[in-house]
UniProtKB/TrEMBL annotation:
<keyword id="KW-0378">Hydrolase</keyword>
<keyword id="KW-0547">Nucleotide-binding</keyword>
<dbReference type="InterPro" id="IPR006164">
    <property type="entry name" value="DNA_bd_Ku70/Ku80"/>
</dbReference>
<dbReference type="InterPro" id="IPR016194">
    <property type="entry name" value="SPOC-like_C_dom_sf"/>
</dbReference>
<keyword id="KW-0234">DNA repair</keyword>
<dbReference type="GO" id="GO:0042162">
    <property type="term" value="F:telomeric DNA binding"/>
</dbReference>
<dbReference type="Pfam" id="PF02037">
    <property type="entry name" value="SAP"/>
</dbReference>
<protein>
    <recommendedName>
        <fullName>DNA helicase</fullName>
        <ecNumber>3.6.4.12</ecNumber>
    </recommendedName>
</protein>
<dbReference type="GO" id="GO:0003684">
    <property type="term" value="F:damaged DNA binding"/>
</dbReference>
<dbReference type="Pfam" id="PF02735">
    <property type="entry name" value="Ku"/>
</dbReference>
<dbReference type="GO" id="GO:0003678">
    <property type="term" value="F:DNA helicase activity"/>
</dbReference>
<dbReference type="Pfam" id="PF03731">
    <property type="entry name" value="Ku_N"/>
</dbReference>
<dbReference type="GO" id="GO:0043564">
    <property type="term" value="C:Ku70:Ku80 complex"/>
</dbReference>
<dbReference type="GO" id="GO:0000723">
    <property type="term" value="P:telomere maintenance"/>
</dbReference>
<keyword id="KW-0067">ATP-binding</keyword>
<dbReference type="GO" id="GO:0006303">
    <property type="term" value="P:double-strand break repair via nonhomologous end joining"/>
</dbReference>
<dbReference type="InterPro" id="IPR006165">
    <property type="entry name" value="Ku70"/>
</dbReference>
Amino acid sequence: GLKRQRRVVRNVYTSKIIRSHRDLVALVFFGTEQSKNPKNAFKNVYVYHNLDEPGAKRVQDVDALRGEKGAQLAAETMGSGETSLGDALWCCSNLYSDIKLRLSYKCLMIFTCRDDPHGGNGAKNRQARTKASDLKDTGVNINLMHLMKPGGFDVPLFFCDIVSPPEDEGELGLQMEPCTKLDDLQQRVRAKELKKRAMARLNLCLGEGINVAVGIYATAVSARKPGAIKLYRETNEQVHSKTRTFHTQTGSLLLPSEIKKAQVYGKRQIVMERDEVNALKKFNDPGLLLIGFKPMERLKLHHHIRPAVFLYPEEDEITGRSVCLCLEKNVFALCRCISRRNYPPQFVALVPQKEEVDEGNVQITAPGFNVIYLPYADDMRTLDPPQCPSASQIQVDKMKEIVSKLHFRYRSDAFENPVIQQHYRNLEALALDMMAPEETEDLIMPKVAQIDGSLGPLVQEFTDLVYPAGYNPETKPAAKRKTDTGGAGAEKKPKVEVPENELRAHMQNGTLGKLTVPVLKEACKQFGIRTTGTKKQDLIDALTDRLAS
């Protein structure tokens, strides 16, 4: 039990370092022979770590308590004595009080394998219940992390009045197994904890004089490795960079008011002030403007050009009524969106989302609108896919069988990014002077043995239907031998020539950029244009000058 307890405490420390390093954590032992706490006001209470931000030194201190040597160190340092949970709770209350910062959330976890820590001592039991009630009144959430005990852990015997009310009433009975919350703490995910805040707060204009305050939230953000911090080599202090602009000829420092911006248009440099640039960027004030409603079938999959965001009105009544109305009519709202000042306007579709709750009446999905960003005409591209032979119906049916066998329910929270997980493990190994980083399980790698067992002979049957007899996809194809052309060399690729009328049409429509560099080079040779550059824009400029003359 103690071995698992130390491992859980270590996991709490290491996960806090990554998830939210500004959280404050303390470690307090009670029932010890030695006493160590502020002013030593409480007997048999040993504050191993004061309430402070977790760090590598603290993790190493907990690691020192592992194994036989760790048990011997704990016995020499703290020992074992009388138990008074009330004094321990009082000491924890003082640790909270000594912090001058405003704490948004306070949690106290009790690790123990004794369901009657005071052996029936009524005075100590009353003191512990009174102090636990005082802590809960100040906003402290008290959780019980009970360990293995022969005969089961009887929570109502003492701890029923100590801990905060649990979500599941089944936790208050006789527990034969250790607390399931220990498994949650052990199975830590190394991920940065992001602040839950609105990306923007805007007004949704439903008509003249009718505005609704809404908030826009990102439901999923790509996790990235934390950026490297530059340090001064001699002192290891963080280095802050500053950028300044100097005149190229005089070397004098330029002020922001002395810097102008320019845009080349028609081979002429248009110089603008900073205020003029900002005025050009501004289309309108930030906000959402309702344009109308469209049937849901008009929204296509290929309209998805960037991740959607979630819109939630500030007024609850409007949320429910609007969502229900759009769901009943099977329509989405079409709006113009300007998310921030000087941002270009975009058309968005507000797709309603109904509230969903589980069996315990806990909300799974919130009511609101998914904001789908719609593309402009300039964003759409015409593709010229290569022509490939079509599969026969027998081959299609066989692949359908394979797909049905490999079907599984995808859950994003079941997969961790292996690159980020390995990065944090490497940092942990360096900070804690570990011999090697902890092994990472790559959850995105396919389970080949399980897949082969599910498919059986289907893969070979599909291979026989699609590929010729004796084909092995793992063997490298034989190198093609060059055909003998009687010393004339290899056959050259045919030249791609574009007629002059098509080139002029491209120039008038401004679509010369759609032609490839080899085609543009061949067009330049066709008109006898000598080009010194090989860049695409140089070729386009040369062709434009020649065709315009």
